[in-house]
Design the sequence.
Protein backbone atom coordinates (compact mmCIF):
# COMPACT_ATOMS: atom_id res chain seq x y z
CA UNK A 1 0.00 0.00 0.00
CA UNK A 2 1.41 3.36 -1.03
CA UNK A 3 2.12 5.80 1.79
CA UNK A 4 0.41 9.21 1.54
CA UNK A 5 2.57 12.34 1.37
CA UNK A 6 3.31 13.61 4.90
CA UNK A 7 1.38 16.62 6.18
CA UNK A 8 4.50 18.20 7.67
CA UNK A 9 6.06 18.56 4.22
CA UNK A 10 3.86 17.25 1.39
CA UNK A 11 6.71 17.76 -1.09
CA UNK A 12 8.24 14.55 0.26
CA UNK A 13 6.87 11.18 -0.73
CA UNK A 14 6.75 9.68 2.77
CA UNK A 15 7.13 10.35 6.48
CA UNK A 16 10.10 7.97 6.58
CA UNK A 17 11.82 9.98 3.84
CA UNK A 18 11.45 13.18 5.86
CA UNK A 19 12.64 11.63 9.10
CA UNK A 20 15.75 10.10 7.48
CA UNK A 21 16.68 13.37 5.83
CA UNK A 22 16.15 15.28 9.09
CA UNK A 23 18.39 12.97 11.13
CA UNK A 24 21.13 13.18 8.51
CA UNK A 25 21.00 16.89 7.63
CA UNK A 26 20.39 18.21 11.14
CA UNK A 27 23.38 16.23 12.45
CA UNK A 28 25.80 16.66 9.53
CA UNK A 29 28.79 15.74 11.67
CA UNK A 30 27.34 12.30 12.46
CA UNK A 31 27.55 9.11 10.48
CA UNK A 32 24.75 6.56 10.88
CA UNK A 33 24.44 2.92 9.92
CA UNK A 34 21.22 1.81 8.28
CA UNK A 35 20.53 -0.14 11.50
CA UNK A 36 20.87 3.05 13.58
CA UNK A 37 18.58 4.96 11.25
CA UNK A 38 15.97 2.21 11.22
CA UNK A 39 15.86 2.33 15.03
CA UNK A 40 15.70 6.13 15.10
CA UNK A 41 12.79 6.43 12.69
CA UNK A 42 10.97 3.28 13.75
CA UNK A 43 11.04 1.39 10.46
CA UNK A 44 12.74 -1.64 8.94
CA UNK A 45 16.35 -1.71 7.84
CA UNK A 46 15.26 -2.74 4.35
CA UNK A 47 13.09 0.39 4.08
CA UNK A 48 16.00 2.57 5.20
CA UNK A 49 18.29 0.86 2.70
CA UNK A 50 15.87 1.52 -0.16
CA UNK A 51 15.48 5.18 0.85
CA UNK A 52 19.25 5.53 1.30
CA UNK A 53 19.85 4.23 -2.22
CA UNK A 54 17.47 6.85 -3.65
CA UNK A 55 19.12 9.61 -1.61
CA UNK A 56 22.65 8.48 -2.51
CA UNK A 57 21.76 8.25 -6.23
CA UNK A 58 20.46 11.84 -6.01
CA UNK A 59 23.71 12.99 -4.37
CA UNK A 60 21.98 14.02 -1.13
CA UNK A 61 23.84 11.58 1.10
CA UNK A 62 27.28 10.05 0.98
CA UNK A 63 27.90 6.49 2.00
CA UNK A 64 30.77 4.19 2.79
CA UNK A 65 31.14 0.58 3.79
CA UNK A 66 32.79 -0.61 6.96
CA UNK A 67 32.72 -4.40 6.81
CA UNK A 68 29.06 -5.27 6.44
CA UNK A 69 27.89 -1.88 7.73
CA UNK A 70 26.55 0.70 5.32
CA UNK A 71 27.29 4.11 6.84
CA UNK A 72 25.51 7.27 5.74
CA UNK A 73 25.94 11.00 6.28
CA UNK A 74 24.48 14.13 4.73
CA UNK A 75 26.25 15.42 1.64
CA UNK A 76 26.92 18.92 2.92
CA UNK A 77 28.96 20.12 -0.06
CA UNK A 78 26.05 20.44 -2.49
CA UNK A 79 24.17 23.61 -3.42
CA UNK A 80 20.94 22.15 -2.07
CA UNK A 81 22.33 21.24 1.38
CA UNK A 82 21.73 24.59 3.13
CA UNK A 83 18.17 25.25 1.88
CA UNK A 84 17.24 21.61 2.43
CA UNK A 85 18.59 21.73 5.98
CA UNK A 86 16.55 24.87 6.68
CA UNK A 87 13.39 23.29 5.29
CA UNK A 88 13.92 20.09 7.26
CA UNK A 89 14.59 22.05 10.46
CA UNK A 90 11.20 23.75 10.40
CA UNK A 91 9.29 20.61 9.38
CA UNK A 92 10.89 17.41 10.66
CA UNK A 93 13.50 19.03 12.89
CA UNK A 94 11.84 18.78 16.32
CA UNK A 95 12.34 15.03 16.71
CA UNK A 96 16.08 14.78 16.00
CA UNK A 97 16.99 18.16 17.50
CA UNK A 98 15.09 17.76 20.78
CA UNK A 99 16.02 14.10 21.17
CA UNK A 100 19.71 14.93 20.93
CA UNK A 101 19.39 17.99 23.19
CA UNK A 102 17.41 16.33 25.99
CA UNK A 103 18.87 12.81 26.04
CA UNK A 104 21.89 13.59 28.22
CA UNK A 105 20.30 16.24 30.43
CA UNK A 106 20.32 15.20 34.09
CA UNK A 107 16.88 14.71 35.56
CA UNK A 108 15.01 14.11 32.29
CA UNK A 109 13.17 10.79 32.60
CA UNK A 110 10.84 11.12 29.62
CA UNK A 111 9.97 13.80 27.08
CA UNK A 112 7.10 14.25 24.66
CA UNK A 113 6.23 16.63 21.86
CA UNK A 114 2.57 17.57 21.98
CA UNK A 115 0.34 20.23 20.44
CA UNK A 116 0.00 21.16 16.79
CA UNK A 117 3.37 19.76 15.64
CA UNK A 118 2.54 16.34 17.12
CA UNK A 119 -0.89 16.49 15.51
CA UNK A 120 0.56 17.19 12.04
CA UNK A 121 3.17 14.49 12.54
CA UNK A 122 0.42 11.99 13.27
CA UNK A 123 -1.56 13.01 10.21
CA UNK A 124 -4.12 15.49 11.53
CA UNK A 125 -4.75 18.22 8.95
CA UNK A 126 -4.18 21.84 9.82
CA UNK A 127 -1.95 24.85 9.38
CA UNK A 128 1.83 24.72 9.59
CA UNK A 129 2.66 24.69 13.34
CA UNK A 130 3.95 28.01 14.67
CA UNK A 131 5.69 26.50 17.68
CA UNK A 132 6.77 23.23 19.25
CA UNK A 133 5.36 22.22 22.63
CA UNK A 134 7.45 19.87 24.76
CA UNK A 135 6.59 18.16 28.02
CA UNK A 136 9.49 16.92 30.13
CA UNK A 137 8.87 14.45 32.95
CA UNK A 138 11.51 14.61 35.65
CA UNK A 139 13.38 17.08 37.80
CA UNK A 140 15.80 18.70 35.36
CA UNK A 141 17.30 22.10 36.12
CA UNK A 142 14.99 24.84 34.82
CA UNK A 143 17.90 26.92 33.53
CA UNK A 144 19.21 23.96 31.53
CA UNK A 145 15.76 23.34 30.04
CA UNK A 146 15.54 27.02 29.11
CA UNK A 147 18.94 26.78 27.40
CA UNK A 148 17.77 23.72 25.44
CA UNK A 149 14.62 25.58 24.36
CA UNK A 150 16.62 28.64 23.30
CA UNK A 151 19.11 26.59 21.27
CA UNK A 152 16.32 24.52 19.67
CA UNK A 153 14.44 27.72 18.79
CA UNK A 154 17.48 28.94 16.85
CA UNK A 155 17.90 25.65 15.00
CA UNK A 156 14.22 25.06 14.27
CA UNK A 157 13.27 28.61 13.38
CA UNK A 158 10.21 28.65 15.64
CA UNK A 159 9.30 29.00 19.29
CA UNK A 160 9.98 25.99 21.51
CA UNK A 161 8.02 25.83 24.76
CA UNK A 162 9.27 23.30 27.31
CA UNK A 163 7.20 22.59 30.40
CA UNK A 164 8.21 20.15 33.11
CA UNK A 165 6.23 18.01 35.55
CA UNK A 166 7.48 15.48 38.06
CA UNK A 167 7.13 11.78 37.39
CA UNK A 168 4.58 11.60 40.21
CA UNK A 169 2.48 14.37 38.64
CA UNK A 170 2.61 12.56 35.29
CA UNK A 171 1.75 9.14 36.68
CA UNK A 172 -0.87 10.30 39.19
CA UNK A 173 -2.30 13.33 37.36
CA UNK A 174 -5.92 13.76 38.44
CA UNK A 175 -8.65 14.68 36.00
CA UNK A 176 -8.80 18.16 37.56
CA UNK A 177 -5.38 19.09 36.13
CA UNK A 178 -6.54 20.76 32.90
CA UNK A 179 -3.07 21.00 31.35
CA UNK A 180 -2.16 17.32 31.74
CA UNK A 181 -5.69 16.23 30.85
CA UNK A 182 -5.44 18.14 27.58
CA UNK A 183 -1.93 16.86 26.83
CA UNK A 184 -2.99 13.26 27.39
CA UNK A 185 -6.08 13.63 25.20
CA UNK A 186 -4.18 14.88 22.13
CA UNK A 187 -1.38 13.41 19.98
CA UNK A 188 1.86 12.75 21.86
CA UNK A 189 5.22 11.91 20.30
CA UNK A 190 7.61 10.32 22.79
CA UNK A 191 11.27 11.14 22.29
CA UNK A 192 13.55 8.08 22.27
CA UNK A 193 15.98 9.56 24.75
CA UNK A 194 17.78 6.35 25.65
CA UNK A 195 17.85 4.83 22.21
CA UNK A 196 20.01 7.13 20.12
CA UNK A 197 23.13 5.30 18.89
CA UNK A 198 26.16 6.49 17.00
CA UNK A 199 26.52 10.00 18.36
Sequence:
Amino acid sequence: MKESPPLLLPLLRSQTHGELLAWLFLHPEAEYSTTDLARLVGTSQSTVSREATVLADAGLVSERRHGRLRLLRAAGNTSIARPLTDLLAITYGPLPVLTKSLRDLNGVEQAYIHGSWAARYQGEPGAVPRDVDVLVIGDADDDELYAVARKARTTLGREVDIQQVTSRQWEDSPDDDPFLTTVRSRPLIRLALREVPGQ
